[in-house]
Amino acid sequence: MPTALIIGASRGIGHELARQYRADGWRVIATARKQPDLDELAQLGAEPVALNVTNPESIAGLGWKLDDESIDAAWLVAGLYGPRHDGFPTQDEFDAVMHTNVLAAMRLLPIVAPLVAVRRGKLGVLSSRMGSIGGRGHGNASLYRASKAALNSVLRDTALAFGPHGATCIAFHPGWVQTDMGGSAADIPVDQSVRDLRATLAKAQPDANGTFLDHDGTPIPW
Ligand SMILES: NC(=O)c1ccc[n+]([C@@H]2O[C@H](COP(=O)([O-])OP(=O)(O)OC[C@H]3O[C@@H](n4cnc5c(N)ncnc54)[C@H](OP(=O)(O)O)[C@@H]3O)[C@@H](O)[C@H]2O)c1
């Protein structure tokens, strides 16, 4: 039975990833930071692990729990949009978004990628088209955009480090998705985004290592 790891599975895209992999008969290790969400993931048949991605001890605990595991498909989903205003971010806003979207990835991916490499598996990181510099047409939500551009940089470094050992590491835009973050006016329902993300990751070959893809597999400029 293949194993999926979903980091940030309490709601939205992460929760739907956990639900769909379980429905397909996968073993699913899924993280959340609140007990009711962990209980709900257990109800789904997932193996819940408590994780706050901004807490180093919590990340160390995940590393300890994953010791000896090997993973076919890993997804780093947890993310924060941050301020909706377009003024300067406050220090607290900056720290919260960069910590959640960038520093957490720098700490988590070196733990997760080797476990993926063992299985010659795939690792998907939920970035955003808003992080693309080459494809940028708007300057709103500057802090979120900067955080996803930095996350893309972390993903490229992870791909360079662990691709040669067998992990295929990809940054994804999930579409504009109807979740708490995307809002109800978004383009696509979460189940459709996640079906596409899973299918694109599943058919990715090793030469996709270090790429930035839309949910349907279309390349996005860095
Ligand atoms: N929705 C979109 O249109 C869209 C578009 C482009 C990219 N994305 C990206 O896709 C990912 C998922 O988005 P979504 O729409 O599903 O977002 P969402 O509905 O707002 O859910 C965010 C998830 O991140 C988790 N999270 C946030 N901070 C955390 C922390 N410190 N520790 C652990 N978990 C934490 C949340 O957990 P709690 O429930 O505990 O808060 C929740 O599971 C994000 O990285 C987002 O930037 C989304």
UniProtKB/TrEMBL annotation:
Cited SUPFAM superfamilies: NAD(P)-binding Rossmann-fold domains
Top-level taxon: Bacteria
InterPro entries recorded: NAD(P)-bd_dom_sf, SDR_enzymes, SDR_fam
NCBIfam families: PRK06953.1
Protein name, entry field: SDR family oxidoreductase
